[in-house]
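Annex B. Sample input.
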Amino acid sequence: MRLTSVSLRLTLIVAAVVVPSIAAAQKQVIVPPGMQASATLSPGTRAGDIVYTSGQLGVSRDTADNTIQAQTKRSLESVQKVVEAAGSSMANVLKCTVFLTDVKDFQGMNSAYTQFFPKEPPARSTVVVAALVSAAAKVEIECIAAAK
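Annex B, continued. Sample output.
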């Protein structure tokens, strides 16, 4: 009988600590105006005070400018929309991963990238890949941001 009382108290203590943590970290799907979620991904998610963006491509059917600079700009503009829809800003981006299809585009990507992070840039990894999901895409960027 005493063991049951101790177990019950321990369970209540654990629940009092764990349940608020889980509630604070509930996943919220972020879909900015002009973007859509699909059956396989969302433009972004927020869990607690962290925002995760899906990889954003820089290709566009609306413009003929497909330089690496233009694609990087469009990609980061999409990241920015997701981050802002989650209640944050580009100043709160903590980490980005950049996927390039050609290492020769690294400097061009950097020139556009620095426009979004002029000071105190986030941590970043840049990876050269064989291809992206769209044949015309030269860059894809995903980021993680603090929501506050």
